[in-house]
Amino acid sequence: MMGSRVCVLGFLLLIIFGILELDAVYGYRPPPRRTFFVPDADNPGSPQQVHISQVGEDRMRISWITKKSTAAEVTYGLSPAANTSSAKGITSSYSFLFYKSNHIHHAVIGPLNPNTVYYYRLGDPSSSKTFSFKTTPSKLPIKFAVIGDIGQTEITKSILDNVAKSNYDMLLLPGDLSYADLHQTLWDNFGRLVEALASKRPWMVTQGNHEVEKILLLHSKRFTAYNARWRMPFEESGSDSNLYYSFNVAGVHVLMLASYADFESSSPQYKWLQNDLRKLNRKITPWLLAVIHAPWYNSNKAHPHDHESVNMKKAMEELLYKSRVDIVFAGHVHAYERFTRVYKDKPDDCGPVYITIGGGGNREGLATQFKEPKPSISMFREASFGYGAFQVFNASHALWTWHKNGNDANEISDSAWLNSLSSNRTCKK
């Protein structure tokens, strides 16, 4: 009986991984890249996989994992002693087939001062080193790092090293984090890989197709690992799901949308988005960004007709257009492409700029084939690994740059100055 179950499991996994690798079959990508392995902690009580995410405008969620059961407690302060204040959190774990996670801890600390370095220790002070992070500014300017489809390869490591040097305030990630693809220990390795960055600046993420991790009959629940490990501040924005939420930071309102949750006009996500946009005050947040996984605009031959792209666009494009969203960031396609302001496939000065940034270093490689001729609405495109930087200087002006990762170098290959739609009198609602 056990042998037959293993055979069935193996067969299903082959089918699933075959689906995940369809792009490679069609010749869009080079061979997979090598995984960059990070050693596990020797001390079972030592916190690892530490990452932070913003909760409201003056609080931070600290998330970490320990092998043995320890208190979900954070001590923190303005000095390396990190002992001025403390906060208790929650601990959970999850199972996935034969895998049982270690202890996953989440604790929210604050209120915190803006643009300030805080020091913190986790769980048992005798087992925890001192970490530090810098809070985001309360007003403009602010700098975002934007990176999609990260994975955990040697190229990922190189790109993250470049991001670390960029002096960013917050990182936005439009899905496809670890590329664990059912192999749960790779989630642990990913957490250790990004800790050096994600423990120092808030990482705000949404999910992609590689986070689904559903196996027919064997594990029917979707996003198990993602929801357990990467808890985002969805409750604070009135969302009922960790898969979609919004937040304010400095003078920017950010929508983190779910390509892989229901998005039709009758869905909870659509109704939540309507309500969230209805409450916006562009005098307080003059910039409005949206982050999705599957791009609505794409001239690459990879993923040309995905349901999550085509039908989410049909359902939500008008809503984002009427709300004057400035930029929509997407991943999924492993290449870079920047479109002009567009609405319903035509240039429109009051539409969002659509930018695809799916070249974060993942094992599947680049999507190297673009459709020809290039559409007139596509301003720049190239099959490159890298990350983006979005610097918002004031209520009306921002600079976008694409940092191409060529031979581990950090080369700006595309840039564009943008004006907020809230400052454009012809686009006033």
UniProtKB/TrEMBL annotation:
<feature type="domain" description="Purple acid phosphatase N-terminal">
    <location>
        <begin position="47"/>
        <end position="135"/>
    </location>
</feature>
<keyword id="KW-0325">Glycoprotein</keyword>
<dbReference type="InterPro" id="IPR008963">
    <property type="entry name" value="Purple_acid_Pase-like_N"/>
</dbReference>
<dbReference type="GO" id="GO:0046872">
    <property type="term" value="F:metal ion binding"/>
</dbReference>
<keyword id="KW-0862">Zinc</keyword>
<dbReference type="Pfam" id="PF14008">
    <property type="entry name" value="Metallophos_C"/>
</dbReference>
<dbReference type="InterPro" id="IPR039331">
    <property type="entry name" value="PAPs-like"/>
</dbReference>
<dbReference type="Pfam" id="PF16656">
    <property type="entry name" value="Pur_ac_phosph_N"/>
</dbReference>
<dbReference type="InterPro" id="IPR004843">
    <property type="entry name" value="Calcineurin-like_PHP"/>
</dbReference>
<dbReference type="InterPro" id="IPR041792">
    <property type="entry name" value="MPP_PAP"/>
</dbReference>
<dbReference type="GO" id="GO:0003993">
    <property type="term" value="F:acid phosphatase activity"/>
</dbReference>
<feature type="domain" description="Calcineurin-like phosphoesterase">
    <location>
        <begin position="142"/>
        <end position="336"/>
    </location>
</feature>
<keyword id="KW-0378">Hydrolase</keyword>
<comment type="similarity">
    <text>Belongs to the metallophosphoesterase superfamily. Purple acid phosphatase family.</text>
</comment>
<keyword id="KW-0732">Signal</keyword>
<protein>
    <recommendedName>
        <fullName>Purple acid phosphatase</fullName>
        <ecNumber>3.1.3.2</ecNumber>
    </recommendedName>
</protein>
<dbReference type="InterPro" id="IPR015914">
    <property type="entry name" value="PAPs_N"/>
</dbReference>
<dbReference type="Pfam" id="PF00149">
    <property type="entry name" value="Metallophos"/>
</dbReference>
<dbReference type="InterPro" id="IPR029052">
    <property type="entry name" value="Metallo-depent_PP-like"/>
</dbReference>
<dbReference type="InterPro" id="IPR025733">
    <property type="entry name" value="PAPs_C"/>
</dbReference>
<dbReference type="InterPro" id="IPR003961">
    <property type="entry name" value="FN3_dom"/>
</dbReference>
<feature type="signal peptide">
    <location>
        <begin position="1"/>
        <end position="27"/>
    </location>
</feature>
<feature type="domain" description="Purple acid phosphatase C-terminal">
    <location>
        <begin position="351"/>
        <end position="414"/>
    </location>
</feature>
